[in-house]
């Protein structure tokens, strides 16, 4: 199974949607709340190629984008393979 990291804030509906998708697939993830620590948000932004919005999602260290991006990957049938779920 892939290592999934997600940067979030508590009230972000897109964060909730992304986490719901991952939970629905039975995928564990490491969540980092960037709402109260400006240094964490700066680190996330640098790691995400300048993207400041949340969520920002990484699978095995590869930036895959935000909620819309992983939902698109799922609709395209590509997300399971990235997550290590495909046979």
Automatic annotation (TrEMBL):
SUPFAM superfamilies (alphabetical): Thioredoxin-like (SSF52833)
Keywords assigned by UniProt, alphabetized: Cytoplasm, Disulfide bond, Electron transport, Redox-active center, Transport
InterPro entries: GLR_AS, Glutaredoxin, Glutaredoxin_subgr, GRX_bact, Thioredoxin-like_sf
Pfam families: Glutaredoxin (PF00462)
PROSITE patterns found in the cross-reference section: GLUTAREDOXIN_1, GLUTAREDOXIN_2
Segments forming domain Glutaredoxin: 4-64
S-adenosyl-L-methionine as UniProt keyword: no
Superkingdom, taxonomy of origin: Bacteria
Role of this protein: Has a glutathione-disulfide oxidoreductase activity in the presence of NADPH and glutathione reductase. Reduces low molecular weight disulfides and proteins.
Family the UniProt entry places it in: Belongs to the glutaredoxin family.
Name recorded for this polypeptide: Glutaredoxin
Native source species: Paracoccus aurantius
Lineage: Bacteria, Pseudomonadati, Pseudomonadota, Alphaproteobacteria, Rhodobacterales
